[in-house]
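User: Reviewer 2 asked us to show a designed sequence for the structure in our supplementary figure. I'm pasting the structure tokens here. Could you produce the per-position amino acids so we can include them in the response letter?
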């Protein structure tokens, strides 16, 4: 597998001069989309019990109380607690997604961390061979972008801590920015630069 390092001056014009704020907005939206949204507390109407008035309205010398499930009592409902029907998704325009990805790749190219390979295939399906390929790049961690992942290559890269294999349709600005370096198949790179 012959590896070519893409430098900044070799990038198409559309990859240059992009506002970094596009990447920030995309990453923020991506992280918001990952939220589990499971935090939930019961309000006084959802807590079981509390049907009977705890004590008489007047004559006890205490403050009036209508239910033991009021937020002021232990075991009562929670006032203003988290609710799991919140929507955390944030809209990002298609054009902005593309700009964010181009900016992330441009930054990698500037630091000479963007590699193009003719074909990424591990015929043996062995992790040892995949590790040899990753080590040959001399990078801390690598995002590997392949047009279509075959079973053998998937098995080879699956257990590597410092490598993550994705298909071309999974490539996004967040992943490109999260990894120290990116290796892209030539077919995927040609498609990316043609779209620009």
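Assistant: Here is a per-position design you can include in the supplement:
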């Amino acid at each position: 597998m012959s590896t070519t390092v893409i430098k900044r001056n070799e990038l198409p014009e559309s990859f240059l001069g992009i506002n970094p704020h596009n990447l920030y907005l995309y990453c923020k939206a991506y992280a918001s989309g990952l939220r589990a949204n499971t935090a939930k507390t019961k309000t006084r109407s959802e807590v079981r019990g509390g049907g009977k008035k705890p004590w008489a309205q007047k004559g006890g010398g205490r403050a009036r109380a209508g239910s033991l499930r009021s937020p002021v009592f232990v075991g009562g409902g929670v006032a203003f607690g988290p609710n799991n029907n919140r929507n955390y998704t944030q809209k990002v325009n298609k054009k902005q997604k593309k700009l964010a990805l181009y900016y992330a790749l441009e930054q990698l190219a500037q630091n000479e961390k963007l590699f193009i390979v003719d074909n990424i295939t591990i015929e043996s399906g062995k992790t040892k061979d995949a590790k040899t390929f990753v080590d040959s790049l001399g990078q801390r961690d690598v995002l590997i972008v392949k047009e279509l992942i075959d079973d053998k290559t998937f098995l080879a890269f699956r257990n590597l801590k410092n490598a993550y294999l994705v298909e071309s349709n999974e490539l996004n600005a967040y992943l490109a920015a999260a990894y120290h370096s990116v290796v892209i198949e030539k077919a995927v790179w040609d498609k990316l630069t043609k779209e620009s």
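For the response letter, you might also mention the following. The chain has two domains: 3-35+89-195, 38-87. Strands lie at 3-5, 114-117, 142-146, 163-167, 181-185.
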